[in-house]
Queue: 3 jobs
Job 1
Amino acid sequence: MLKYRIITALILIPIVIAALFLLPPVGFSIVTLVVCMLAAWEWGPLSGFHSRTQRIWLAILCGFILAAMMLSLPAYQRAIELVQVTGSLWASLAWWVLAFLLVIGYPASAALWRHSRALKLIFGLLTIVPFFWGMVSLRQYGYADNHHTGAWWLLYVMLLVWGADSGAFLFGKLFGKHKLAPKVSPGKTWEGLIGGLLTSALISWLFSLFVPLSLSPSTLLICSVVATLASVLGDLTESMFKREAGIKDSGNLIPGHGGILDRIDSLTAAVPVFACLMLLVY
């Protein structure tokens, strides 16, 4: 399994980086929309929609919502200036605060949504739609002055998340003793969380040495720490929904890694939260 994970990662990471820097904003938006539709397909079983037909319609619904929002954007305006986008990012911030309460209160909190397909569907839309707009708005950041500014910011967030995941796995294996959220994800530990934060801090420092980031050090620190913690919450939230649904992986599209949601669960929280803090708060 580890061999497949490494091989798949070595193939996917260059593809993701190439998409960030080589695709124009429209092409990048379309690719991100397809990823979100696949994520919606995998969210089906998590929200109680198990048949292939139901999952296909769920993916189509998600794609239609995102496409309709994209087509409503005037070509001359940046995405972040429009209410569709700002509303999505603020909604994401509110959703992840609620998700935090649901995770720390689990399994008692599940009584509020366990038997409601509608609520679980709304939770899915609050996870996927703001993720899409976080990706798009960050990619468009500074595009008029430098086509690659937004790509560097997105790569920065992704490296933070990948670093947090890797550091948490390594430190958890070596030093993990105290469970972080045993009722949601028994494998995660406080030692792993600290290791992930330290790894992300190192990546942030190294990245800022070689890439000019247009934020003050204190603002960058706040955005980075909150985004890293949000990435952990995104992982735990998906684990909570999978545990309720009685499934191990959200899918099997990526060899050794499970499904699309299994790979982007941390990013679904980190990207819109980082975008909201960086573009709307600061």
Job 2
Amino acid sequence: MKLYQIELFVESANSGSIANSARRLGKSRSAVSTAIAALEVELGVELFERGANQSRLTEIGELVLDDCTRLLQAANSLQQKCKHYASGAEVALRVARDDAIPEPVWREMLASLHNQFPGTSISLVLASPPELPALVEEGFVDAAFGLITEDQERSGLNIDVLNPIRTLMVVAPSHPLAGLKRVKQQDLTDHTQVTLSYVDEFSVKSLLPVGGQHIG
């Protein structure tokens, strides 16, 4: 059984006749018909009921058409992966990310990556910023994108800063702190803070809490 025979069978089934398949593929009708006939001999069944101007699938032809289509898809996938690997590109890429980069940007990036590297499968892991370095260091992911602190930047990881971001504490205009001309540390500790929480190997922790009252 040859892969090109399977391809000719699927093409003929989808185009409605062996003649149509031959025209679309730029081959002679006799060459396509001979290849499919050889496949039928090897399989021991007739795949087409041949008429004067058209070829109709037999019952077994209908039953194996999907299998043949999947076989061609698997062969194409195999070729793509091997070609991809031979070019030096990654076959699989695992990326950790936090919510710093907006979702529409991620969708655009993933579409662009798929177009440029169709043979690379990409897995995304959502994590909080403090968890990202450990995921890379321990080999769970190949790369991570997210907010980093100065301490993390001084770690042994290879870090490229895409863009510096200045973070601020904010309150609603109606909040008591909004009426103060100057906010002191003690003022902050008297109010509830909403901050980012994350999980380490021991417990749930809050990132940069300024007081005992906070919501993670």
Job 3
Amino acid sequence: MTTTGTALVTGANKGIGLAVATELGRRGFAVGVGARDAGRRDDAVRRLRDGGIEAFAVPLDVTDDASVGSAAGLLEQRGGLDVLVNNAGVSGGLPQDPGEAGAEVLRSVFETNVLGLVRVTDAVLPLLRASSRARIVNVSSTMGSIAAMAHAGERMPVMVAYSPSKAAVNALTVLYAQQLREAAVLVNAACPGYVATDFTGHPAGARTPEQGAAVVVRLATLPDDGPTGTFTDDDGPIAW
């Protein structure tokens, strides 16, 4: 198979991240499996390789500067990067009621979901700028939509840490898209929907990881004239 380019997927050892890595690999990308758990990371790489995908391990803790720097160095040694999927994230658990969850819960969630995204993105930006087909996809959620939060408790759980963290992801998506427009780096946010994973507790009737990964892969493989600075799910743009 001719290699399409190199992709890094953070949090790729299971769930949506692994499904994204699998589909990008099927489309010809050499896929870096970014994860902090060595056993799960190596198992994911083996599974991908067994499926005929060119995959390689990227030891990566998005909350640690040194780990992120080492990951960027590894990618540089391998020849660069074309696609970054910022998928790693935490929920912070439940309940998350305003006035009760506490600042430590917010700090923990933002450390991974927001600061982790910034650490990784900034570390690999020189590699992406050097690519002729660079794409960044930030995995977000409708729970990060301010419009949706106005109905929290009616249509979705109240999560005082997780929802604002994804709103920040959406804001960062717009700002990075503006900053990188002249460099032709397309930056978009994707909502996979309510997917049956460890993250959600595998609820009955939820979408499969493969279904959730579809919008992420679509944005990761946009043509050069594709959109940038959008927040999208399978049905199209989502209200911010």
